[in-house]
Each structure stands twice: as structure tokens, then as C-alpha cells.
Specification:
homodimer, Thiamine-phosphate synthase (chains A, B), Aldolase_TIM (chains A, B), magnesium (chains A, B), 8 strands, TIM Barrel, transferase (chains A, B), eight-stranded parallel barrel
Chain lengths: 209, 209
């Protein structure tokens, strides 16, 4: 049973002086429930090396590791799953190569994309960008209302992504989604562990910012 | 039994107005014995789509298709093999994921890299750049003498790459290598089929330019 509540996607470009492995470990201490490793413009060797390092950490804490886009890396490090966007490997090809046990998540920005992905066997959906974001400039805009509609029409878990932070996390959770995916709201914060812990509590409404 | 004699690597950036599929088919008519699909800076979806198209052509003519770098694409289209550089997936990881039947080629620029790749189970080596080339600016320079040395020290087939054209192909073959790998010497020529045919004959010394 997957817990999608606080889903961390990585972006090494946002880390500044911080080390990715340390940041991921701190974020897990703070309460992150899933880690997605997302690397762009790196060699396959570099992606593989960082994936090996992150896998050691996620395994230690029994947190599922999802690899963005690259099925070869997911296979190479025996990650728990793969996340594919609309410009990545088609869902049916990915499922055939990964088998039925691995988690496959699909990015969706419309009800149609969401229903197609569910039909093709996606295990969860990443829906966004819910709010405008600098991290992924090519992402289409999806408001809270559409997020709610998508969630209402699919049976698989929905994780909301895009511009989510401690100030709006609860408004996102109120749409009924299963979790929030954040990058900068955790990785760009001075105290990564505390940022994850505060976000986790916001999602559960254990604290109000 | 693989025939590495005239190995075509692709580069869509060099094609100008020409279509990649048409060019590959023409090159096969001209005598190309192996096709390596090499795509940089494209989405996984685009790479997969073009690989599906090229696979149909290579299958039709029973020419092996090798995918550059991306093991996910090689698996997705059931290509005959994968070519990895020193910045790609490590050889042992690639072999584990592809199994013993698939061809794995490794780029090598020194005797040491060549011996390591052979020891790790590479099926062939791509050695270069033999001559300076614009196609792959980051490639280290390997002269004919070093090429000869590498060939003498390994048992697996050696394909020479880098700046090879009809004017120097025979000098390369004289080092004892099993074949030449070209990109622009075929793809950038006005008559792709004729260019491949002339190169093939040069390799066999059936004609002197």
C-alpha cells in the first residue's frame, strides 16, 4: 500500500551548495513518503551513479524510489517505480518492460489524459501544475477546480504538483487528492527536515501556518 | 556472425532536408552492414518513435540495429544491441539488463579502455576518433598507429570511427580493424546510396578513389 501523501521530486539545479543525498535523507526524516529522482541534462553514467546513491538511502528508510522518465535507470537500480510524462516512453511500452509489480506514475493535466493513463494501467497520476511554478516552465496550468474534477473521475491515487507550499498545501489536500508533490518547498528551504515536517503536518492539518 | 564492415551511425542534425528513414534505407541499399541509432537532446517519446521506424527498416533488410546509450530504447524496440560510451551505463549493468544474447559495443580510445571493455564482456569496440571530426567534438584523438595497437591486443571486433571517408577508408582498414563507422561520409552526401556503395568498395579495395 503506497503512501503518496508527501512526494518529493528532486532537482539538483535548485540545491545550491547542498548535497542531494543529504537533502533527501533530511527530507525523509521530516516525513517525505515517496522520492522521485528527476535528472535532466546529465549523462547516463551520472544519472545511474546518483540513482545508486539515492537508492541506498530510500532503501534504508523503506521509502519507495521512483525514477523520472528513464526506464533504463529504473531497471538498473531496481527502483520501485517510474514516472512518465506525456513526452516520455508510452505507458504500455513501459509496463511491458517493467512488469506488473513496478509502480508507474503518469503526468496528466486534463481529465482526458488522466482517464487514458488510468485505462492503460498507471498506478498513480501526477496532476499539475496546480499553481504557476518556476521549476517546470513547460507544465500546463491546472487549477484546484480541475484537480478536483480529475480526482473525482479516476480510481487511482492522484498526487498534485506545481507551486505547492506550506501556505497552500491544505487547500490542495481539500480537493481530495492523495498527496502533494513538491520540489522547492522542501529542497530550497534552509532547514530541509523542518520544511518536510511542516508540510507533512499541513497536509494532515496538524498545524496551521 | 556479425559483419561490422560498414557501420552507419546516425545524426539527424546533419541530414538537412533529408529524411532519416529514407537515408538509412538508401544507405542499406548501398551496403551498410550495421545501423546505430544515435539521438541526443530529444525526448524519450521522440527517440522511441524514430527507433520504431528505423527498426522496421533494418528488420526488412536483416541488418542489425544498435541503439546508442539508451538501454530503455533498445529494450523497447527489441534492438539487436546497445552501444555505450564511457559516460553511459556501465558495461556490467547493461549486460545484466540486456542478457547474454544482445550485442553490446563499447567506445574505447586507449588500449586500457579496450582491454577493460573486452574483459567486461563487450561484443565489439568502437575506437576513435581516428581522424579529427566535427560530428563528435568531445572524442579523444586516436591515430592509425594506436588503432593498430588496440586491434592487436583484443580478440573482439574493432570498428574504427571518426573522420573516416572514402579517401582514407583503406588506410584505416589496413590497420586490421573489422570495419569502419561513419556518419557524415554517408549521411551528408547528396547520393547516400552511392556514397555507401563507394565506401563499401573502398573497404574491400574493390575500387580506388
Amino acid at each position: 500500500m503506497m503512501n503518496y501523501q508527501l512526494y518529493l521530486a528532486t532537482d539538483r539545479g535548485l540545491l545550491g551548495q547542498k548535497d542531494l543525498c543529504t537533502s533527501v535523507e533530511e527530507a525523509i526524516y521530516g516525513g517525505v513518503t515517496v522520492v522521485q529522482l528527476r535528472e535532466k541534462d546529465v549523462s547516463t553514467k551520472d544519472f545511474w551513479e546518483i540513482a545508486c546513491q539515492i537508492k541506498k538511502i530510500t532503501e534504508k528508510y523503506q521509502i519507495p524510489l521512483i525514477i523520472n522518465d528513464r526506464l533504463d535507470i529504473a531497471l538498473a537500480v531496481d527502483a520501485e517505480g517510474l514516472h512518465i510524462g506525456q513526452e516520455d516512453m508510452p505507458m504500455e511500452v513501459a509496463r511491458k518492460l517493467l512488469g506488473p509489480q513496478k509502480i508507474i506514475g503518469v503526468s496528466a493535466a486534463t481529465v482526458e489524459e488522466a482517464l487514458t493513463a488510468e485505462k492503460q494501467g498507471a498506478d498513480y497520476l501526477g496532476v499539475g501544475a496546480v499553481f504557476p511554478t518556476d521549476t517546470k516552465k513547460d507544465a500546463g496550468h491546472v487549477g484546484l477546480e480541475q484537480l478536483k474534477q480529475i480526482k473525482a473521475q479516476v480510481k487511482i491515487p492522484v498526487v498534485a504538483i506545481g507551486g505547492i507550499h506550506v501556505g497552500n498545501a491544505w487547500s490542495v489536500m481539500e480537493t481530495g487528492v492523495d498527496g502533494i508533490c513538491v520540489i522547492s518547498a522542501i529542497l530550497c528551504q534552509k532547514d530541509v527536515r523542518k520544511a518536510a515536517d511542516t508540510l507533512r503536518k499541513s497536509c494532515l492539518r496538524l498545524s496551521t501556518p
